[in-house]
Write a structure and sequence with these properties.
heterodimer; A: mainly alpha; Butyryl-CoA Dehydrogenase, subunit A, domain 3; two-stranded antiparallel ribbon; B: alpha+beta; Phosphorylase Kinase, domain 1; 3 domains; two-stranded antiparallel sheet; 10 strands; 34% helix
């Protein structure tokens, strides 16, 4: 069976690391984080579901060889690429009128409380409105939980670039969230 | 320490790392001391922390059940595909996505009424054609050989959309109806009958035995039509309304 090695990592470290196969049996471990990342990218829960599904379909399409242990970073990159592919495809499609139908959600055991879900929707919608580079940085580090180095590798930029973008993304996000005067200092970090 | 006036970008990185706790231990103390002397930097740090806290507050947000099932189905299909060694593309084979509910719960799980009702939360994928006058059923829309009722003229529930799902080897066809801002879903499940939900109430109306239960806030009514399980559910819709709709046969025009 042919094996696709389509994950060439940048830098000497990636090139020298041993190649190993991405284990499909463990991809589900990252589902929640990918879902949150997709939600923050799309700004829509429903689009996020479709995006994650497409991402998994893409990854599972053929064996994947990685040069690092960073499965999550790899998945995030595929998610991001899939997202932009979908955006381009959507831009080419003629727009259709939406169905005269709205989503009526049923609660399931894995769902969060309604108020929390509402807050999450607002938060991820705000993240989705950030400019692409800022949004990707905050998704990689704050939403998915990658280290700065992993995020830099996943997004193929320098670590310093990630840090700067992250700072500015958070700054915009905080200002979008509302009046910062009501927030006490020192609640994290 | 770097001068923030001369190296503002470096200070931004310090603030970002300080806010999320990833700053190098040796750098934390001098940076904090420097920030303590600047009201502006303190304000910027608060912004960073506010954003970090906001995002971290939602790290418990989990992927919905439907997506978990889809992911499992993809993995199962991919594994089968690999073992078959046919080398065909997977995505094309996934045009009709099969959910593998049996993959849940160590193979013990089978489709349940609650699972079927979960489909009510999914969006419609196609519109429903309008029926001719005086029709009791929606045209060109059948599941397991059974038509869906047309309720708009009689009850005010307008059919707004339909979706098909393959779950655990069964086909589930769901029609969505709306009335005054409320939405209900009518699913016909192909195959052998689904067992009633545990603890469901059993009622008999018009010669039809119905089981009524709730799943979270959703009220679910199930019954059989020619051996096929029908699931009607809605949120904030009285059970009596669902029962009345379920047993309506339009004087025999709608096959049961």
């Amino acid at each position: 069976m042919p094996i696709a090695a389509d994950h060439a990592l940048p830098g000497a470290a990636g090139a020298s690391a041993p190649v190993r196969r991405l284990d499909p049996n463990h991809l589900g471990d990252h589902l929640d984080r990918l879902y949150r990342a997709a939600w923050a990218l799309c700004g829509s829960r429903e689009d996020a579901e479709d995006l994650v599904q497409d991402t998994y379909a893409r990854v599972l399409q053929k064996p994947r060889m990685l040069r690092s242990g960073d499965d999550l970073g790899y998945l995030l990159r595929v998610l991001r690429n899939t997202y932009f592919t979908r955006l381009r495809a959507a831009a080419r499609r003629p727009r259709a009128d939406p169905l005269p139908d709205e989503l009526d959600r049923v609660e399931d055991p894995s769902a969060s409380a309604p108020q929390a879900a509402l807050d999450a929707s607002e938060l991820y919608a705000l993240i989705a409105e950030l400019p692409d580079p800022f949004r990707e940085a905050v998704v990689a580090v704050d939403v998915v939980g990658l280290s700065y180095r992993e995020a830099a590798r996943a997004l193929r930029v320098r670590e310093a670039t990630i840090t700067t973008r992250l700072y500015r993304a958070r700054q915009r996000l905080a200002r979008s969230l509302g009046d910062e005067r009501s927030t006490p200092a020192g609640t994290s970090g | 320490m770097r001068n923030p006036g001369r190296h503002p970008r470096a200070t931004e990185r310090d603030l970002a790392r300080l806010a999320d706790g990833s700053i190098e231990p040796g750098r934390r103390e001098p940076v904090e001391r420097f920030i303590a002397a600047s009201g502006e930097l303190q304000s910027r740090l608060r912004e960073q922390r506010r954003a970090v806290d906001a995002v971290r507050a939602h790290t418990g947000e989990r992927a919905p059940l439907v997506l978990r099932l889809r992911r499992r189905a993809l993995a199962t299909s991919a594994a089968r595909h690999r073992s078959s060694a046919l080398g065909l593309g997977l995505i094309g084979a996934l045009g009709a996505l099969v959910w593998s509910l049996a993959a849940l719960g160590g193979g013990q799980a089978a489709l349940t009424v609650a699972d079927a009702a979960t489909l009510a939360a999914r969006p419609a994928t196609a519109i429903v054609p309008e029926p001719p006058d005086d029709s009791a059923m929606l045209p060109r829309l059948r599941a397991a050989g059974l038509p869906f009722p047309y309720w708009e003229d009689r009850f005010g529930w307008k059919a707004t959309g339909v979706r098909d799902d393959d779950v655990d080897g069964r086909t589930l066809t769901t029609v969505f109806y709306r009335s005054r801002g409320r939405r209900i879903a009518y699913t016909i499940v192909s195959g052998t009958r689904l067992p009633a939900a545990p603890g469901a109430d059993t009622v008999k109306r018009g010669g039809i035995v119905l089981h009524a239960s709730t799943h979270n806030r959703r009220i679910i009514v199930t019954w059989l039509r020619r051996g096929q399980t029908c699931v009607l559910s809605g949120v904030d819709v009285p059970m009596s309304t669902l029962v009345r709709l379920a047993v309506w046969r339009s004087h025999g025009a709608l096959p049961y």
